[in-house]
Amino acid sequence: MIAAQTIRNSHYLPTELEPCVIIEDDALNALNNFPDNTFQCCVTSPPYWGLRDYGIKDQIGAEMVLCDYIAKLVNVFKEVFRVLADDGTLWLNIGDSYTSGGRTWRDSDKKNRGRGMSYRAPTPEGLKPKDLVGVPWRLAFALQAEGWHLRSDIIWHKPNCQPESVKDRPTRSHEYLFLLTKSEKYHYNFEAIIEPTTEKNGSKNRRTVWSINTTPFKDAHFAVFPPSLVKPCILAGSKEGSIVLDPFFGSGTVGEVCIETGRRCVGIELNPDYTKIAKKRITQANLSFRY
Ligand SMILES: C[S@@+](CC[C@H](N)C(=O)[O-])C[C@H]1O[C@@H](n2cnc3c(N)ncnc32)[C@H](O)[C@@H]1O
Asked: Residue 116 above 60 pLDDT?
């Protein structure tokens, strides 16, 4: 049984026997190799701007200038647009950050080594110290300008959010998940993700605030998103057997959920330490859900 194979520079696609392919490469490079209209759905969480140092050449997120970060992501998502089916969907989770207020580094915290930064980007032009940068909306508008249909902003509310020591603003307990599409009409199975109502056996169309706890993944020292955030995206955005893409695969959460729900997956990840973690995770998911 081969659950996942890690390869480099290829457009190799997953099969029934090998439902998840992990490509160890830069996202843009790897996407260039795939033909148009390959994937039904893309679920991903790119590196956030200036929040984590993944310590690897070509990493996205460590740009000193905000516009460079947005431009790099726009380029990656231009390729995602090309390789997505015409009725495909992109589910994009992205977090915000604050300007550094003149500090040039950040200590790592005990719970999260990846939060230590040897640099802090200077305050972007037009912003002030302590400003919320608004990264998610800047990216969403940039993608909209490139031709994506911006269909929904979903609030990922985290009931168990990290405490913050701030006393001059509320503690941040949400992130954004954007639903973007290639066309006006697209595959969206609303029934697969209906919500219960208070009436007995009642149900209603899914709402835009999703309360989901963060779930730590023990092997990873970086931001993983919880499987329960990914699952509704995959259920609504694809069918059994569809191929789902995650160009920033990290620990492979999207791959795990694909295996659980009978989808196939291509995950692209730059960092060889993380592809190892993802491969192990996919192999375990295959044993739990398929055999
Ligand atoms: C927010 S994390 C994704 C975590 C993932 N959703 C999970 O649940 O584990 C972003 C990932 O993007 C990877 N990354 C950074 N720059 C990249 C690039 N240029 N190409 C591909 N992956 C990259 C990082 O190594 C990191 O694993």
From this structure: no
pTM over 0.90: yes
List the beta bridge partners of residue 36: none
| Residue 287 pLDDT | 87
Domain that holds residue 60: 4-284
Q: Residue 177 CB: number of other CB atoms within 10 A?
A: 25
Distance CA 87, CA 39 (A): 10
* pLDDT for position 40: 98
Q: Which atom of ligand 1 has the smallest separation from the CA of 268?
A: 21
CATH number at residue 72: 3.40.50.150
**How many domains, the chain?**
1
Residue 106 scores a pLDDT above 70: no
Ligand 1 centre from 114 Cα, in Å? 12
Q: Please check whether residue 150 lies inside any domain of the structure.
A: yes
- pLDDT tops 60 at residue 241: yes
Which atom of ligand 1 is the closest one to the Cα of 52?
1
Please indicate, yes or no, if residue 290 is contained in any of the structural domains.
no
SS3 202: coil
Q: Is residue 291 part of a domain?
A: no
Going from the Cα of 219 to the center of ligand 1, the distance in angstroms, rounded, reads 15
Q: Which atom of ligand 1 is nearest to the CA of 46?
A: 10
63-88 residue pLDDT tens: 999 999 999 999 999 999 999 999 99
* CA-based nearest residue to 150, from 135, 162, 160, 140: 140
What is the 201 CA–ligand 1 centroid distance (Å)? 40
In a domain, 289, yes or no: no
> Residue 291: is its pLDDT beyond 80?
no
CA-nearest residue, atom 7 of ligand 1: 224
Closest CA to 42 of 182, 158, 175: 182
Ligand 1 proximal residues by C-beta, below 6 Å: 26-27, 45, 47, 54, 58-60, 220, 222-225, 248, 250-251, 253, 268-271, 274
